[in-house]
Design goal:
Number of domains: 1
Oligomer: single chain
Number of helices: 2
Radius of gyration: 19 Å
Bound molecules: zinc ion
Largest sheet: 2 strands, antiparallel
Strand order of the largest sheet: 1-4
Order of helices and strands: HEEEEEEEHE
């Protein structure tokens, strides 16, 4: 899961970036960098994505592996960490929604 943070997010084709400097839709690449880690780390996993064809949010239903230990120093090797870059899972909250049973 942590490796996904480092993957660049591409904005191209029908999902170009609206550049406010040159006032044009441009191809772009978004990268995530981490400079400092918090004492306690809370991760929220976005489970919706926008469907540009249907113009609505869709639920992402693929399985997600929850790692019990996250080691940022192994993923972001180029960063000189001043503090511990390792987190151990303390707990998780899973939101589920059950469809209401309607009378037939
Ligand atoms: Zn631009």
């Amino acid at each position: 899961m942590l490796q996904e943070i480092k993957k660049p997010e591409m904005f191209e084709h029908d999902n170009k970036y609206d550049c406010n400097i040159c006032q044009k839709m441009q191809d772009a690449k978004k990268l995530t960098m981490i400079q400092k880690l918090p004492k306690n780390l809370i991760i929220t996993i976005g489970r919706f994505q926008f469907n540009r064809n249907l113009l609505l949010n869709e639920k992402i239903c693929n399985e997600v592996e929850i790692q019990k230990v996250l080691k940022f120093d192994e993923i972001f090797e180029e960063v000189k960490w001043e503090e511990s870059a390792e987190y151990h899972l303390y707990g998780k909250i899973i939101h589920t929604v059950a469809l209401a049973q309607l009378p037939l």
